[in-house]
Specification:
13 strands
């Protein structure tokens, strides 16, 4: 598996391009297509969304239009974020934004080597995507888990108790899992067990 990280915007949200034996994935389509320059992928099979906040779906309509064969997946608990600026939180930061894309239920996505973990708390529909191929184990955590911290739970639909429960569930994963968060640098479960105060509550 190969991963390319593309941070973008004032909140430095991470968009990821992932290539696996199961296909080519774009995870959290936050970067405008024209911003990619020479890094535009030749193919995208799936667009996966960890949660519906605007800084993670900012360019979803654009990417879905450029790659109409790509299927877009999100938790149904965050479908409302595509239609309601108060749930995608754009109204809280700069302007009201809505999207025409209508995603599919990520819980119905069945691919070899992919496990969808429902991890609510940052938003009702927050999920993590765990990919395993050979000895490689990588996980995209959105704003549930960061390197050394966790996401906030005070936005519309957030729930601190749920978030802490979700983070606790991630502690049981293989320590060799590489973590790619929605903001900031990558980490591993092993490292988070040592440095992350929320792993030791």
């Amino acid at each position: 598996m190969t991963v390319k990280t593309i941070p973008f915007g004032p909140l430095a949200s991470n968009m990821y391009l992932l290539s696996t034996d199961s296909g080519c994935f774009l995870i959290d389509p936050s970067v405008p297509y024209e911003h990619m320059g020479d890094d535009i992928p030749s193919k995208i099979d799936y667009i996966l969304i960890t949660h519906g906040h605007f800084d993670h779906i900012y360019a979803v309509d654009e990417w879905a239009g450029k790659f109409p064969q790509a299927k877009v997946y999100c938790s149904p608990k965050d479908f409302i974020c595509f239609e309601d600026p108060s749930y995608n939180c754009s109204v809280d930061f700069f302007e009201s934004v809505t999207y025409s894309t209508r995603p599919l239920d990520v819980n119905n996505l069945k691919l070899e080597g992919l496990t969808v973990l429902n991890t609510p708390g940052h938003s009702p529909g927050s999920v993590c995507f765990l990919f395993e191929q050979g000895e490689q184990k990588i996980m995209f955590t959105g704003d549930t888990l960061f390197a050394g911290s966790v996401g906030r739970s005070d936005l519309n639909g957030g729930d601190e108790k749920q978030l802490l429960s979700s983070v606790t569930s991630l502690k049981t994963l293989n320590p060799d899992v590489i973590v790619y968060p929605g903001h900031g640098p990558s980490s591993t479960i092993k490292r988070e067990l040592v440095i992350n105060p929320f792993f030791n509550l």
